[in-house]
Amino acid sequence: MTTEPPETTEETEPGTPETGAPSDGAARSHDEGGAGRAGDDEGALPGADAPAGDSETPAATSAADDGTGDTASQKSEAEAELAAQRVERERIERRKAERNGPIESGTKLSGKAADLLAAVRAVEGGAKPAATVLSEPEPSRRPAPEPVRRPQPAMTADAPAAPAPQTVDSVRRVLTDGGAPETLAPQAAAALGEGADDQLRADPWQLLRIGGVRPEQADGFARALLGAECAPDDERRGRAVTVWLLEQAALAGHTALELPTLTAALAQRGVPDADTAVQNTLAEGEALAFQDALDEPGAPARRDDEEAEGEERPVRVLVGLERYALAEESLADGLARLVNSAPKQDGSAEEWERAATAAGSAAELIRAVAAHGLVLHTGGEASLAEPAALLQAARALGLRAWAAAHSPQGRGRFSALLGEGDRSEVPGVVTVAGLLSGAEGPGRDVDGALDLDLLVVLDAPQLDVEAAALLTESLPDGARLVLAGDPAVLWSAGPGRVFADLLAARICPQIASRRPDPGPLGELVSGIGIGELNQVEAPGKEVVIVPVRDAGEAVHRTVQLVADSVPRAIGVPAEQTQVITPGHGGAAGTRALNAALKERLNPGPGRFGGFDPGDRVAYSPAPGRMVPGQVVKADAEGLHLSCAGESVVVPKERVEQSVRHGWALTAHQAVGARWPAAVVVLPGDAAQALTRPWVYTAFSRADRHLSVVHGAEQALPRAVTETPAKPRTTRLPALLRPQVPTEN
What we know:
By secondary structure, the chain is of the alpha/beta class. The protein has 26 helices and 19 strands. The two termini are 42 Å apart.
């Protein structure tokens, strides 16, 4: 590893650092996952100084982000995916109606927790709960029911209907009366539906349902509309802020919040009686409460039916949005079905053993898959050869075997391992989004299940609870599921930590690959994964450290590396070099870097929403997903892109929300893809955003060469050695515990 760039440093005027890195996990997990824009001023309503939806706040992906820019003659992949999700949510609703109650486990409570549970039950009985009602716990969890098969999603499913023009106009008038930017009218009408204007007048805090709006902004809107009737203890405000906090928690990756955490956050937001606010939210059905039993450290896990009558166990009470809470329960039921049922007998034991013996390092994985319905596989980039060998062996045994990656780039890399060329689309290898939407893959059988015997999901840490629930519930009885990925990378953009939770739960075989990533880059990244930032020998300039004094110099040196140094010294052209930085804002964020790189690499007037033909872009077809692409042209239809070999047309009204320049990305946007060269920018103001998974993910995006534009000083080694992944509150381990025995 050297601290000199490939060529002599040019002098540049120092710049002034700005706070550009996200300040918390909520902002990072959401804004980095998609391409939505937003303003940097949290004190003003979105739209006051920037277009609506342009926000560095975590709520940047709003309901308006659903849909894509395909032509009108054929529904887009994202629309079909959303249709599939709607079908799944309807199925979850049916499950919810059949449940005895939202409390599935646990025992006796007292005080505020008991009051909260009493509130839930009162709501189910049709009455508004009293704050002092006590109640006995619900019966123990039932065995996992047989899944209700989802019907095959149709590619011709209708996209969400746009709000009627008269609805938008009436909402615009209400917003104007309340001093809010009228540019929010389409979002408000879409979020609130028919009668949105009356809803806003009756409850101004419903403005918080619009992405990017914060409580203090909604308070100002309410004061303008309600006048003297506006008060901090207004029940409407308490409910709205409670839901808003749960939404922010979901954007930070939590599927639910513990009750004390939620009430403390409400108090910080000026809600005088946090407990009553939570109970009112539950009473209106805007959130669900759950009680999860906690086993003491070192104690063996117990099923609910093993508890002695009257025995008390420690519990925690959580509150979550219905969407994520029920998806996590659906996921637990689906995983339990896979673990507890015998896989379909495809091939004899002798045939599986012969396949394993011939597979080299993949032998252990093949043997595990032969006998189990769910298997976890961990390892870095080199370990992908083992799932590839598994897929080939399974096909040779006659199984309908498929692999699903989270990005078109990942699909292409895995296809190359199968000997089918580095093509964007090959038989048997799909993207997760394409598989769920029906745009790719084997299709579905008459019961609505995926028509396959084995599914290998790559980049498994990127699975959030909703996508994971859709996948598991879509598998037919007797199918095998392999989740493969690198546990050291950043977690999913959406709520949950599915792969990490399953690794910790130990409910199925876990196969750890022994194939290390090669060369100096592999050595560097492997050390980071265990908390060590090592000096590595890089005789071929595989790793170069470029010290900088400030953000202005960081931008200058980054442009120099991409445009001149890396092509000349390493032989990797600019179009194959990816810049990665912690955040979108600030003096060395993606916006500043993309502006500088565009000026150098593809200057132009930006006639179509700031874009010109030849621009590299990051296209977000749905919240939490990003596909690199290039602008081809723009016309009356919209912005024409080439993304992973496919043509995409983004209507002009969608460009602002779903397309960014893509020479520079955040690590969350880059996860799941790799490039021949990567330039990782670490400005001084990025210190708080750096964690070990962030550094690991950013540095491991390079195949041949990594340049680190380093201005973070000791914050980099400190992040690697002392700052692990930020915790997420999830229910999956507690939901699995009573249904699935733990592997020894």
